[in-house]
Amino acid sequence: MSQTKDKVIITCAVTGGVHTPSMSPYLPLTPEQIAADAIAASKAGAAILHLHARDAADGRPTPDPRVFEQFVPRIKASTNAVINITTGGSTRMSLEERLAYPLIAGPEMCSLNMGSMNFSIHPAARKIEHWKHEWEKPYIEGMEDMIFRNSFKDIKHILHVLGDRHGTRFEFECYDLGHLYNLAHFVNEGLIKAPLFIQCVFGVLGGMGPDPENLIHMRSTADRLFGRENYRFSVLGAGRHQIPLSTMSALMGGNIRVGLEDSLFLAKGELAASSADQVLKIRRILEELSLEIATPDEARAMLGLKGGDAVGF
Questions:
Q1: What's the CATH code of the domain at 34?
Q2: Which of 96, 102, 298, 303 is the most exposed place for a label (fewest CB within 10 A)?
């Protein structure tokens, strides 16, 4: 399985649980907005749609299955994209809350953070002069004293209740080198089977910095741990590092993730009006480099997914 000849899988994360409404007027918050942005991203070329939910009243992250149910089936009915439901949610959510909708939906794919970590954007609070909602400032500033928890037992539980019981496969989010070794532990225990889909995350405070050398190191380490034939890697560059690191990943035979969850900008000083705009931008770059974009069904075959007809929505 030579990745250098494979097409590039574009994942799009349309809203996430980190940014708040005061940071961008374009961040999708309501079920209608999330559905519209996801559908547009799929039409722009995203094969995988990574989804979080928001409370429509004030935009705060929510794990409520009733909210997911207002937009996930709509997206499935309008696209052929692989629907990827977060199990990360936010640092404020318990494991039970984070799994509430995935266990109902049984999706083709879920994200899975490969370890506990400091995860913060609290310095961003200093840049906001006017907050739209009372919850936002303490939410962002409070990240300085929050830990995202995924213990070995938590990860094992997620692999069992979603992977074994529902046939869901995972976007393994690795924010640091040690997360690759955590992943290798579960592979060695026989709890995870190839092909792996490894999402290397760069530029989040608490994880790896966005240095190109770190991407090379993660790639070579994954080769040693798993063998290149057993995994596919993808890159998420936070903020202004989104497009440069995505391009570098594709040139190295990897895949990419964009979307307003990861960066609010399209260019320096220019807010992205939608996640689809970011998909179109990286697609233009990749096609200029003579790289082909994978369709959803091609992504399914590459990642060994169960198919959209085998989900619970």
A1: 3.20.20.70
A2: 96
